[in-house]
Amino acid sequence: MTEMTGDVIAEVRGQVGFITLNRPKALNALSLGMVRDLMATLLAWQGDARVLAVAIRGSNKEGAFGAFCAGGDIRFLHQAGSTGNPQLEDFFTEEYALNHLIHHFGKPYIAFMDGIVMGGGMGISQGGSVRIVTERTKMAMPETAIGLFPDVGGGYFLSRCPGRVGEWLALTGDTIGAGDAIAFGLADGYMPSGQQAALWEQLGSERFADGAAVERLVASKFTAADAALEPHRAEIDRFFGLDSVGAIVAALEASDGVWAQAAAVTLRKRSPLMLHVVLEHIRRARGMDLAADLRMERDMVRHCFYLRPGQSETVEGIRALAVDKDHHPKWHPARIEDVAPEMVAPFFASPWPAHSHPLVALA
């Protein structure tokens, strides 16, 4: 059975449900329609005893694999955030509900995280029970570059990385490869990209006793991968464990290390306000379960667009990066040192009473 749902192709072969993200020109960036298709497909398969497991991949312009998902459709977010389109609210509510479903799916969910895996692509893979990376994997939560924060459950899964890796990834938006993704708890195993197609086909043709047998087959294909950033772990923990964004940047800039200097340059390009928000986000989320974190993120993303009318860091960041492409966002305030605590606190005040929160049903 194959179901064509525009940018999402869903099919059941044998005992496995297969999903292909099929929007290659946009690097499979998630639209509201794609979120709805994914949700409907997964809910149907969750209740279907014939489907023992789910496998998900992206496509590129040449065919399957090569690009998983570059995130949410930021051009839509800019347009909707600039014009007051109510679908902006629907997108985040439904995307976060989808992220929660994947984490609590109850069946093996195998994510082929080949190529670009960023932002919303992390949201539809991090909840998986088997997260496969390849030599082509480029993984990041780069939201501070567009005046946003690592959402889609990013507070939850980044804060659970070892040491202060979560703070570093969230603040800088730096990209990591397969070995580091495994070392940091953001992937489960490495597979050469050329072997993915054969495994994908095998999953649909083999008979399995249960879902665990599906996972065992996948895990049997894993090989070792080097973690390039392991030498910097002590630096990451030392700098990104400091109390504030100002302290982190000052310490990085005072260092004579090449890695530290590069990190400082990156942070100076990010939204100063959102850096402060993000540090608070990660540290709050470390003590939360996934549902609580997603509710907090839903509050935060509402504020990113509407807390400061006409002065949204997110709308401005997307404009500079993806719309006008001048790469010179005008952040307010412009300097990390000029962000006051009273600018940060409102992002963590829910605009809804608890009983009316859009994600009240998540448990």
TrEMBL record:
Residues 16-348 form the Enoyl-CoA hydratase/isomerase domain. Keywords: Hydrolase, Isomerase. GO terms for molecular function: 3-hydroxyisobutyryl-CoA hydrolase activity; isomerase activity. InterPro entries: ClpP/crotonase-like_dom_sf (IPR029045), ECH_dom (IPR045004), HIBYL-CoA-H (IPR032259). Signal peptide: none annotated. The keyword Isomerase applies. GO terms for biological process: L-valine catabolic process. PANTHER family: 3-HYDROXYISOBUTYRYL-COA HYDROLASE, 3-HYDROXYISOBUTYRYL-COA HYDROLASE-RELATED. This is Enoyl-CoA hydratase/isomerase family protein. It comes from Paenacidovorax monticola.
